């Protein structure tokens, strides 16, 4: 390695300091934090989907659990800094013991099944029910994801059409994806986050309007304390609006 000398070190230190400052400033500028939960049977690829979206990684030797509760990725949507906080089960799904704390405050959810294991698809309804019961009811935007679309056709046990039909019935977005190749993973998460964004902004507007009608002004919490106008860093209780437009258009698997 080339010796940079004092000056070189200082420059490097300064650079690192600047980078750290920039990171924390960026952090401070975050407008929204969206909690998204990933559920589904064991070994359908939940952890790998999350790794693909947050770090663009796929670990071949993935263990069935990871130590942390969630991963984050910050992105810009409609000129707002959005931090997606994506929660992963730590293997509790194996014992059907996902707690209500896991779901609480989730604005978005992914219900994942494995296209090569029919039983994981048959359990989707149960996962959706559990979500509806523990998350914010119907206000949580839900996407159905058929993972492992990279697997050979002969291994497939669930047709995309069939899953699309179920999604339609249940009012969910649907996409097949592959955490292994990365196909559709980014798009699926982004579509979900976009929809959460739409729901949250609509709700914020409604609250704003309601507040204006009441003539509330300023910071005084004279109104109902439960209403959250500043969404920063908060789990937001959004209204019961859900639309199923964008992702359904991509209901046919784009991967081979
Ligand atoms: N072929 C293929 N295998 C996958 C894919 N995603 C995950 N896997 C494999 O499926 C197994 C379970 O994945 P994991 O993410 O731990 O599942 P989880 O229990 O739902 O979190 C692991 O052996 C992964 O390597 C995928 O998209 N394609
Ligand atoms: Mg896992």
Outline of the structure:
One of its GO terms (molecular function) is GTP binding. With 256 residues, the protein is α/β, with parallel strands linked by helices.
Written account of the structure:
The structure is a single chain. With 256 residues, this protein is α/β, with parallel strands linked by helices. It has a domain at 28-202: Rossmann fold (3-Layer(aba) Sandwich), CATH 3.40.50. It has 7 helices and 6 strands; from the N terminus they run H-E-H-E-E-H-E-H-H-E-H-E-H. A 6-stranded mixed β-sheet has the order 2-3-1-4-5-6, sandwiched between helices. It starts with a helix and ends in a 42-residue tail after the last helix. Residues 42-48, 62, 64, 147-148, 150-151, 178-180 line the site of guanosine-5'-diphosphate.
Helix content: 25-40%
Q: Widest sheet: strand order?
A: 2-3-1-4-5-6
Distance between the termini: 46 Å
Average pLDDT taken over every residue: 80
Residue share in β-strands? 15-25%
Question: Cofactors and ligands present?
Answer: guanosine-5'-diphosphate, magnesium ion
Order of helices and strands: HEHEEHEHHEHEH
What is the radius of gyration?
21 Å
CATH fold type of the domain at 28-202: Rossmann fold
Largest sheet: 6 strands, mixed
């Amino acid at each position: 390695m080339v010796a940079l000398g004092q000056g070189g070190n200082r420059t490097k230190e300064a650079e690192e300091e600047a980078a750290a400052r920039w990171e924390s400033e960026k952090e401070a500028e975050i407008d929204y934090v969206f909690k998204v939960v990933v559920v589904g049977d064991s070994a359908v690829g939940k952890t790998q989907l999350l790794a693909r979206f947050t770090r663009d990684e796929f670990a071949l030797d993935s263990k069935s659990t990871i130590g942390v509760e969630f991963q984050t990725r910050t992105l810009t949507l409609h000129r707002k800094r959005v931090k997606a906080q994506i929660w992963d089960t730590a293997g509790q799904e194996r014992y059907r013991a996902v707690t209500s704390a896991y779901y609480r405050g989730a604005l978005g959810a992914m219900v994942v099944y494995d296209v090569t294991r029919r039983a994981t698809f048959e359990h989707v309804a149960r996962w959706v029910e559990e979500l509806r019961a523990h998350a914010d009811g119907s206000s949580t935007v839900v996407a159905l994801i058929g993972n492992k679309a990279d697997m050979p056709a002969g291994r497939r046990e669930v047709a995309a059409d069939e899953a699309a039909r179920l999604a339609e019935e249940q009012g969910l977005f649907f996409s097949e994806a592959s955490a292994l190749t990365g196909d559709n993973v980014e798009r699926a998460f982004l579509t979900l986050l976009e929809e959460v964004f739409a729901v949250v902004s609509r709700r914020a507007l409604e609250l704003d309007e309601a507040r204006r009608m009441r003539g509330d002004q300023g910071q005084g919490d004279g109104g109902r304390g439960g209403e959250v106008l500043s969404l920063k860093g908060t789990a937001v209780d959004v209204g019961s609006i859900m639309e199923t437009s964008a992702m359904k258009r991509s209901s046919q698997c784009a991967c081979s």
